[in-house]
Write a structure and sequence with these properties.
Elements (H helix, E strand, L loop, with lengths): L2 H14 L4 H18 L6 H13 L4 H20 L26 H9 L6 H20 L3 H6 L5 E2 L4 E4 L8 E4 L2 H12 L35 H16 L5 H14 L4 H8 L4 H11 L4 H11 L2
Antiparallel strand pairs: 1-2, 2-3
């Protein structure tokens, strides 16, 4: 059986296993890239080594190459189990060492500025400002991912109990996310402004755009989902304007986790709210790295009191 046929069968098996659409798309791109590089070549360890070198020469970061190699190794391991491949050419090829990931994080003052800022504007600008403010507040207060925020509907929000029902989050898993009072109030202002067309139902998307293909408003005739890039642009532009530091959607998720950590929210609660399958991810990425001085400061405070 050739590589391309095995590739299709593997992706089909991921669907049967219940892998998310985004995961399957990501794996598909990686498998397609490797298949294009090795087209017509015998796939051996030296082929993998040449492919890895080509990635470096194309400016791909080591951590990304390591991820690609993990996915491809899983593919070949699956192929061996199915009797498709005789060996896994990735086993003997070392992965690039992962560089320490550097996170962009806002200061407490900058976060406070984002939360308290409210621009005075009229007309369509006022509606856009309220929408953008609500988006930023939701990200900071709830810790939602880009895709999760874009998929929210009004039906997913429990205003009475302060809970957001995240349906089909990362890995296809659902969970409950926090919906604090500040986020509820900001969102209520957004909904009352008419920025979200009044003819929409509670099952329609919470955030979207009524613009047509040319960017002109349809005055509520259409309500289209925001793209990942569009949401990123909204957040980046808004944070640059308000606190002078343009950041992405995921940075605001980091801010949420950092705030919860400072407020002494139990680590298990933070893990569940963020939707991490492994608590080690919460500890390593969101606590230890984002707030590296907290432990030292806490110890100093205790020692100073003796």
């Amino acid at each position: 059986m050739d590589y391309r046929t095995a590739q299709k069968l593997y992706l089909d098996s991921l669907t049967v296993e219940g892998k998310s659409t985004n995961t399957i798309k990501g794996y598909s791109r990686i498998l397609e890239d490797f298949g294009t590089f090795t087209d017509g070549k015998e796939i051996m360890p030296i082929t993998v080594s040449d492919w890895r070198t080509a990635k470096y020469e194309n400016g791909i970061k080591g951590a990304t190459i390591a991820h690609y190699m993990t996915v491809l190794s899983m593919f070949f391991a699956w192929g061996m189990e199915q009797g498709i491949f005789e060996s896994n050419p990735f086993i003997k090829i070392s992965k690039p060492k992962k560089e320490e990931k550097k996170y962009d994080i806002l200061s407490r003052d900058q976060i406070q500025t984002l939360i308290s800022y409210k621009e005075k504007a009229k007309g369509a600008f006022a509606k856009n400002n309220l929408r953008n403010r609500a988006i930023v507040h939701m990200l900071i207060m709830t810790g939602l991912r880009n895709s999760e925020l874009r998929a929210l509907t009004l039906h997913d929000l429990d205003f009475e109990n302060g809970i957001i029902r995240v349906i089909d989050g990362k890995g296809g898993k659902s969970r409950s996310a926090p919906f604090p009072k500040t986020a509820r109030e900001t969102l209520a202002e957004y909904l009352a402004s008419g920025a979200r067309p009044e003819n929409l139902t509670e099952n329609d998307l919470l955030f979207g755009t009524d613009a047509d293909e040319k960017g002109h408003s349809t005055h509520g005739a259409h309500w289209n989902a925001l793209s990942s890039a569009a949401l990123l642009q909204i957040v980046s532009t808004y944070t640059e304007k308000v606190c002078g530091h343009a950041v992405g959607v995921h940075t605001l998720r980091h801010c949420a986790a950092s705030l919860w950590d400072d407020m002494k929210i139990p680590i298990r609660d933070v893990q569940k709210a963020l939707g991490h399958a492994n608590i080690a991810t919460t500890e390593k990425v969101y606590i230890q790295i984002l707030n590296p001085a907290a432990a030292a400061q806490n110890i100093s405070a205790v020692m100073d009191s003796i």
